[in-house]
Amino acid sequence: MSNKDELRNSAENAVGKAKEGLGEATDNESLAAEGRADQAQANIKQAGENVKDAAKNLKG
User: Fold this and answer.
1) What CA–CA distance (Å, rounded) separates 15 from 8?
2) What is the secondary structure of 10-45 as a DSSP string?
3) What mean pLDDT, rounded, does the chain reach?
4) Which of 3, 10, 29, 48 is the most exposed place for a label (fewest CB within 10 A)?
5) Entry pTM
6) How far is CA 24 from the centre of its chain?
7) CA dist list (Å): 59 to 28, 35, 53, 54, 55
8) Residue 28 φ/ψ, nearest 5 degrees
């Protein structure tokens, strides 16, 4: 996986955590849920990148 993809996924995860925290602090369940969804999406992307890396390592 490229560092660019890893940084992008990490940033998306961080934004999700911030949204979730802000939503919980302000009792805004919609914002908290959006933050959790952002984190889940970042984790799915990260998992996909890990699978691609594993496949490349098996070929090489």
Assistant:
1) 11
2) HHHHHHHHHHHHHHHHTT-HHHHHHHHHHHHHHHHH
3) 92
4) 3
5) 0.84
6) 19
7) 47, 37, 10, 9, 6
8) -105, 90
